[in-house]
């Protein structure tokens, strides 16, 4: 403001009055977070890196329509190249994709082009496609020097745009590049597949920064849509994408101190584990054969953490005195080995008190090498001796850090819980089922995860009573349905006015729906008797998986997340698209 008053340009006045107008508008994000107060006092950044402008194709790359050469105008050519780049992909054979693409492509054509090009099946994109393939081949063949140059240029851009100053800290910005235009893909048979994902121009972009900072400059001859100064949010830049109409943000890198984003970081770490988990597994399997006892113990402990989602040590709450253990503090008395049990070989039985004194009991067949190692670890030990005598929590945690930056036992849990939820949701959701049925499927997926994480509970005391109440409601609804059906039949035989007939029919339908909803609720409650869903939901499941699922199937968000949870996951609700993949 002070800075502005010094210059007192028209632009500054405009910005100030804009702020006054905007400050009266409340956005969802802020409403939910308002109690947190302001996120920063000073914020300065350089704005986004826009997608590079379109470079027209060289003259020798031709496009044919109905066998005849056709020179396209730059806007039409650009959109055609998006299609050409995907020509080898199955997408471009899909009817829906072709139809959506063609419709949006026509919007970019000149009227002459529109009159000439009337059938997408007569378009020949082959040369364009070949050209892009050759280009990508050439990129692979680049010399070291050329590669280095590109790397240096990227580094320069990172240094210039990749950081902001928030209060007294220089913070890394997450995704400061704006996605280039292209064709929307979507998952499965998305009805919008093939549509043109438009180029984001400065005029689409809203900038958030301090009044008294150096505002980012739009490219020469353009202007930003708006410049705002809102310290209740941590976004630096936002725009609305045209396919789903959702708002996109540029925000700080997970490494920043901002709260909420810690959560994000946690799940990003779990996603990094996803990428290297195969390597880690290969490594610990190799280590089972090590000559060193401490390495073997470490490797078996890691296997438990990976496969059983055990905690690393006994992270006791302050004042907790119960004899609880984690992986590293397991004692001989906590496991039993069975070379053969029922139909299975090499079974390990675990029985101990874990965090919060929740009993962990599990029988699991393990690999032969693990079993042999365990036998070795148990040799000449008393029941109260440590199973892993050459290991403690700090050694294990240090080892995990070396394997992957930020890796802890908890990351394995987060990874496994999240990936399991995603798989289960894919498996259990059928596209045609009703919303209540979808919610039941969601809760089932969530339950699979809770069981995996050992989030059990005793059945609530009120369980039987509340089940009975629900059953009474179901019985009443059932009677009501029969009665209404009967009336409808009666109306038909008496040739009553068709209007009455219709409203009876509607009533039957409505009651049927209500009945189904109650029945779903009963199933859900019964299945949930001894499982606590809250813990995994709040701590181990990447909320973007759930948000994406909700958006994909048009399920109301409040059926999945209650108010507290929606506040906690506001970042995910704003960020995740329906095609988000963990
Ligand atoms: C498309 O054009 C290429 C030459 O650019 C030609 O070899 C090919 O036969 C054409 N395809 C069709 C279906 O006309
Ligand atoms: C997750 O944990 C379960 C049970 O411990 C295990 O069977 C499964 O292989 C794990 N999944 C992944 C992807 O790690
Ligand atoms: C874990 O073991 C290492 C090496 O034996 C030892 O230096 C360290 O103090 C131990 N840490 C704890 C917390 O017991
Ligand atoms: C939302 O659910 C959590 C359990 O995950 C619970 O602790 C909390 O009280 C609930 N909040 C509201 C507002 O219902
Ligand atoms: C990038 C951006 O616009 N971020 C925030 C700036 O402030 C407004 C409210 O004034 C928020 O809606 C934006 O999310």
Automatic annotation (TrEMBL):
The keyword Cytoplasm does not apply. One of its GO terms (molecular function) is DNA binding. GO terms for biological process: chromosome segregation; DNA replication; DNA topological change; rhythmic process. CDD domains: Topo_IB_C (cd00659), Topoisomer_IB_N_htopoI_like (cd03488). Keywords: Biological rhythms, DNA-binding, Isomerase, Nucleus, Topoisomerase. Its EC number is 5.6.2.1. GO terms for cellular component: chromosome; nucleolus. It catalyses: ATP-independent breakage of single-stranded DNA, followed by passage and rejoining. The keyword Isomerase applies. Residues 491-506 have a biased composition (Basic and acidic residues). Residues 183-554 form the DNA topoisomerase I eukaryotic-type domain. The active site is at 540 (o-(3'-phospho-dna)-tyrosine intermediate). InterPro entries: DNA_brk_join_enz (IPR011010), DNA_topo_DNA_db_N_dom1 (IPR013034), DNA_topo_DNA_db_N_dom2 (IPR013030), TopoI (IPR001631), TopoI_C_dom (IPR025834), TopoI_cat_a-hlx-sub_euk (IPR014711), TopoI_cat_a/b-sub_euk (IPR014727), TopoI_cat_euk (IPR013500). It is an enzyme of class 5 (isomerase). Coiled coil: none annotated. Releases the supercoiling and torsional tension of DNA introduced during the DNA replication and transcription by transiently cleaving and rejoining one strand of the DNA duplex. Introduces a single-strand break via transesterification at the specific target site 5'-[CT]CCTTp site in duplex DNA. The scissile phosphodiester is attacked by the catalytic tyrosine of the enzyme, resulting in the formation of a DNA-(3'-phosphotyrosyl)-enzyme intermediate and the expulsion of a 5'-OH DNA strand. The free DNA strand then undergoes passage around the unbroken strand thus removing DNA supercoils. Belongs to the type IB topoisomerase family. This is DNA topoisomerase I.
């Amino acid at each position: 403001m002070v800075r502005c008053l010094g210059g007192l340009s028209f632009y500054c006045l405009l910005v100030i009055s804009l702020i006054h107008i905007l400050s009266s508008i409340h956005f969802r994000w802020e409403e939910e977070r308002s109690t947190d107060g302001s996120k920063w006092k000073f914020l300065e950044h350089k704005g986004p890196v826009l997608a590079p402008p379109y470079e027209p194709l060289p003259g020798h790359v031709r496009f044919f329509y109905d066998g005849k050469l056709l020179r396209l105008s730059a806007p039409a050519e650009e959109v055609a190249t998006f299609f050409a780049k995907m020509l080898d992909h199955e997408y471009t054979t899909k009817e829906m994709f072709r139809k959506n693409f063609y419709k949006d492509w026509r919007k970019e054509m000149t009227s002459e082009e529109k009159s000439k090009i009337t059938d997408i099946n007569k378009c020949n994109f082959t040369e364009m496609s070949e050209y892009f393939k050759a280009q990508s081949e050439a990129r692979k063949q680049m010399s070291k020097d050329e590669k280095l140059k590109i790397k240096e240029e990227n580094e320069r851009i990172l240094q210039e745009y990749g950081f902001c100053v928030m209060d007294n800290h220089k913070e890394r910005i997450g995704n400061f590049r704006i996605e280039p235009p292209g064709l929307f893909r979507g998952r499965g048979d998305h009805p919008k597949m093939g549509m043109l994902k438009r180029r984001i121009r400065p005029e689409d972009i809203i900038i958030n920064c301090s009044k008294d900072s150096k505002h980012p400059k739009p490219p020469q001859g353009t202007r930003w849509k708006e410049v705002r100064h809102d310290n209740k949010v941590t976004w630096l830049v936002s725009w609305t994408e045209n396919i789903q109409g959702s708002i996109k943000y540029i925000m700080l890198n997970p490494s920043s101190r901002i709260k909420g984003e810690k959560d994000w970081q946690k799940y990003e770490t779990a996603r990094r584990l996803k990428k290297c988990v195969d390597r880690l597994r290969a490594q610990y399997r190799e280590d089972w054969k090590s000559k060193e006892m401490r390495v073997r113990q470490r490797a078996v402990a890691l296997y438990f953490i990976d496969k059983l989602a055990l905690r690393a040590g006994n992270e006791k709450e302050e004042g907790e005195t119960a004899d609880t253990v984690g992986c590293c503090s397991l004692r001989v008395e906590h496991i039993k080995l069975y070379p053969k049990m029922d139909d299975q070989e090499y079974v390990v039985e675990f029985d101990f008190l874990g965090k919060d004194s929740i009993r962990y009991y599990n029988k699991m067949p393990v690999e032969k090498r693990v079993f042999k190692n365990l036998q070795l670890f148990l040799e000449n030990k008393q029941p109260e001796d440590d199973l892993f005598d050459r290991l403690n929590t700090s050694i294990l945690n240090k080892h995990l850090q070396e394997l992957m930056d930020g890796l802890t036992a908890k990351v394995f849990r987060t990874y496994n819980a999240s990936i399991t939820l995603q798989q289960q949701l894919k498996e259990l959701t059928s596209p045609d089922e009703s919303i209540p049925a979808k919610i039941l499927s969601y809760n089932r997926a969530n339950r699979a995860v809770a069981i995996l994480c050992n989030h059990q509970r005793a059945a609530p005391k009120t369980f039987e009573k509340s089940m009975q109440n629900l059953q009474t409601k179901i019985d009443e609804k059932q009677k009501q349905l029969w009665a209404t059906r009967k009336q409808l039949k009666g109306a038909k035989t008496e040739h009553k006015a068709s209007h009455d007939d219709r409203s009876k029919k509607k009533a039957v339908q409505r009651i049927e729906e209500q009945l189904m909803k109650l029945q779903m609720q009963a199933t859900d409650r019964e299945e949930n008797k001894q499982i606590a869903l809250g813990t995994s939901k709040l701590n181990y499941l990447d909320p973007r998986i759930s948000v994406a699922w909700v958006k994909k199937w048009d399920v109301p968000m409040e059926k999945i997340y209650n108010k507290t949870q929606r506040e906690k996951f506001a970042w995910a609700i704003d960020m995740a698209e329906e095609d988000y993949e963990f």
